[in-house]
Amino acid sequence: MMDQNFFIILCIFCVSQSVTAFNIDPSSWKTFTEPKNVSFGYKVIQKDASSLIVSDPLIQISQSQRGQIYNCLVTEGRCSSLNINVPSEAVNMSLGLSLVQDSKSSKVAICGPTVPKKCAAATNYRGICFISTNNEIKPPIPSPKYRDCLGQIDIAFLLDGSGSVGNYNFQIMKTFVTNVIKHFAERDAQFAIAQFSGDCSIHYNFAQLKIEDSTWESKVAGIPYFMGFTYTAKAIQKLVNELFITAGGARPSAKKILLVITDGQSTDPKSLPSVVSQAEAKNIVRFAIGIGNAFDYFYAKEELNTIASDPDNDHVFKVTDFNALNNILQKLEENIIAIEGTQTSGDSSRMEFAQDGFSAAFTSYGSVLVSAVGAFQWKGGFQEYFPDYSFQTGREHESYLGYSMAVATVSSISYAILGAPRYKHQGQVTVSQIRANLDKLLDSPKPQIGSYFGAEVCVVDLNSDSNTDLLLISAPTYMEPEREGRVFVYAFTSQFIFSGLVLVGIAGQMGQFGSSLATPVDLNGDGFRDVLIGAPLEENGQGSIYIFNGGVDQINPTYSQRIAGSSVQPGLRYFGISFSQYSLDQSDDSLPDIAVGSIGAVLLFRSRPIMLLNTKVTYNPSKIPTNVTDCTKPLQNILTVCFTMSGFKHSLTGLAAIINYTIMLDAKRQKYRAYFTPKNRLHNDVMNITLKEACKIHNFLIEACPEDALNPVSSELTFTFQGLPSTSIIMQNLRPVLLPEIKTTTDQNLDFEINCGTDNICVDDLRMDFNFSGSTNIEIGIMQELNVTVFIENKGENSYNTLFILSYPFGLSYRRITSKQGRVECVSLDGVQGVKLGETTCYISKPILKDNSQVVFEITYSINKESTLGQNLTLKAEVTSGNDKHAKSSEFFKEKTIGVKYAIYIALIRHENSTIHINFTAGKKDLMKPVQQIIKIENDLRELTFKVFIKVPVKVGHADIWNNSSLQISGCTMEKIQKPVTTNFTDIIKSSRMVDCSVAECAEFSCDVTLIRNERILYNIAANVSSGWIEQTGLRAAVFQLVSSASVDYDKSKYVFFSSDSQQTATSVQINTQVEVYEEADLTKEIIGGVIGGLLLLAIITAALYKAGFFKSQYKQMLEEAKRDAGGQPNMPK
């Protein structure tokens, strides 16, 4: 049952590797528990060097009291309950659900946000916070009056603007009105202001003066002073009829309050009883405030009593002067609250479910911020107390603004950081400048529904200079395939900006990483505060904590230590649910301790002293002799290993450690030349060390007359560090730990003697040079490789272990080496952009570059076609050797530069939607046909800024080609009109049938273009082409080509055009449109000739048939048949 209760609290009534070690001792030093507890450890504070404050907000003390605060004494290891005088109305308040300490004082805020209040419409939930200063508990905040049942209330101010008031006092009266409004700002209240003198003016009705409007105070201050008589009754009559109605913004279910402020008797006293009766009939509760000596007289007093509602003692106020108005403010407020109705209209809630104190934070001004997540239908918000400021409301319903809270300080300006984890189901954080109403909203960089972004916020002052450097925002239910929870890191420049860094826990754990955050202290002593992050649901609810170390301006993204609850103590639940926000040295060992809460226990962990370790390896003799005559007898040598331990930024004593180490002789060679015993070059040993140098010697043998008597014997020392329990009483068995940056592997060379003449000193004279193998420029995108030819010469004595190092920029990649003369071996490591240069290291005639010898070789690098190398590329070369001395004439360094150009490819293409053909009828003037010539420009290789020049023929002779004499191309500017190169245009057009800039005037356009890679742009030459210019040619049937052209220009000092031809020149394009002219056909002669020919043909056919007897034979037969029919005799067969 407890687990269920715990999660209800954790979600705030949501109606809406076991140990990775660094320097926190994973064994808890102290554990505090209580026999009877439900959620002991939910919050914890390291109050001072000897005590902690721990909360158990869910323990049921009695039927009406829930929550307990404990004071736990470190030395005694036990806790006792704190005596806090909880008001009787604070029923089941969950005391200690919020617990926070002021970093600059002894103040502690203890809050219980679940105080129920049974009201007519519903049970309200408010909250109470107690501020403890030097163990003294101040009266709770908010004041008990704010926990009363809240309803709707409409308050109207009727201000006396008569001549007796005066402008100065009228300003004071307006300030009083402003203060009254502020005291009712967090209630469901509306306000209206009217002024009366000879007449009455309603300056703002209930719908016009909204406290949500940031300008409302300036509106009140801007009300002008009228002067005149004192027609009080007339003014009340107007408000009853025109203000306390729906049209005036009044709400039917709201309590109606009228505050009349006047400095004397009215001009129309006889009308007062009548209008007051009308106000009474409308249930308008009236308060009368009389100012000055005028109300010492009986009739003036009676007038106030008439205006005010009964009883007069509660509704009539008298003050000596205007400056005394604020003296009645509190009493007036209490009296209004006493008659305030309960909201029953069904409108959105305001402060009824506010749950004040769900989170709290102290400011640099000494005040305290208290959040109310349920305010205004769970928009949430916060309020500053001591002094009291107006409530700051959230923006979105059901967002829970104030679920978490912290205060950031930058350049003495304080910012309230408030989480709203249910904002639009994804979460949001508000950064609000305190006392300035300037907000900055931070949305999740990786939005996810249900992630609870903003559930915890934490400010980090990395270098403890009192200026906030980072903001941590957790999303503990952010889901990933292998983990749950993220913490996003924001950096502060001029505002908080997401740094790109996200902190996460180990994979395979769904533990709500980020449920708690703290930056208590610099734990590892490097001068930068570190970060604690809790994951209380890891390992099936046993929980774990993570430690991330801070740096110069950021947090190390990899945690330095993880402590699992299961490794600390069996049975822990939700280990890491809370941290003390500030760490103190409670173990009295001069090192900070951290307090970690779980459900049922609070554990104190000590930080371990961090140690430096200096390692030294020496040989005796220090050189290997090379003038040995007996090659069968191995050479003897002594290796000495020394360790010196010292404190890292501390001077603690009584510390010791065990060093387990391994020595490997000649570690860099597979076939080794040194050994401890035949066939064994390894030796393991153990050394106990303290804060003094500790050494051990080891004898070994070296092969005499080895094949390689030049390259040194390199011995590798590898060790582990294990701190021993301290013998110091203060340190109490604490074990030191090694600084992680200390290398646990070292190499130490044992060199061979070098024989160089009688002085035994070899003086080489190295000369080095290189060139770019004939290249004058690098052409990025065209050249695939860059060849660098290197010359190295030794004009002195032998040069040992000669090295050539060539540094090259990111964008070049090492490919190969080609030896031209001598022996050379090279290795290379390409550069990392913005981090380091690439470096090619070449071993020249290893091991000896003999006197008067030369080596020539070529290094080939591939060129990344996407790289940006600037306008010049610089290579730096260095040659070194193992010789102790070098000739003064040696040339060790060279630096050379080669120009860089970048390949570009711009395609100019005729667009498929360009007009191919138009035609005109010869002889008809002023004909028009629409034409569009579209040029498509494509940029293929890289972002480029260049110019496009477009030439369009616009005039032949004296005739315009286009109907628009001021032809325009969108995105381009017409530079000039270019005259044709010839004046004999007629003959040329007749011959070539081509109309271009050689025969026509052309408009030349210039277009500035910037295209990214693979982007394209279109330029459209569009207008109507006229037929008038064709008449000048004298041709009545022809097909002309109307030719526009386009070309590009670019910075040839930076770019080179990539093309398949050897010229590498940019392309151009011509856009042709066929313009045809033809004669209209006349068919009259053809029609007449056809008709005559048809008639002649018919006559000839008729004559031919006649001659053939066709018409005659038929006629005779017809006569005979007619005759037979006339006789009437049938033809009978015989």
Automatic annotation (TrEMBL):
Membrane topology annotation: Single-pass type I membrane protein
Q: Any transmembrane segments, and where?
A: 1087-1106
Subcellular compartments: Membrane
Task: Give the UniProt keywords, A-Z.
Answer: Calcium, Cell adhesion, Disulfide bond, Glycoprotein, Integrin, Membrane, Metal-binding, Receptor, Repeat, Signal, Transmembrane, Transmembrane helix
- List the GO molecular function terms: integrin binding; metal ion binding
What Pfam families has UniProt attached to this entry?
FG-GAP, Integrin_A_Ig_1, Integrin_A_Ig_2, ITGAX-like_Ig_3, VWA
Signal peptide residues are 1-21
Indicate whether Iron appears among the record's keywords. no
FG-GAP repeat start-end pairs:
439-499, 501-557, 561-622
Alphabetized Gene3D superfamilies for the sequence: Bicelle-embedded integrin alpha(iib) transmembrane segment, Integrin alpha, N-terminal, Integrin domains. Chain A, domain 2, ntegrin, alpha v. Chain A, domain 3, ntegrin, alpha v. Chain A, domain 4, von Willebrand factor, type A domain
Q: Which GO terms describe its cellular component?
A: external side of plasma membrane; integrin complex
**Source domain of life:** Eukaryota
Q: Where is the VWFA domain?
A: 154-332
Q: What is this protein called?
A: Integrin alpha-X-like
Species source reads Carassius auratus (Goldfish)
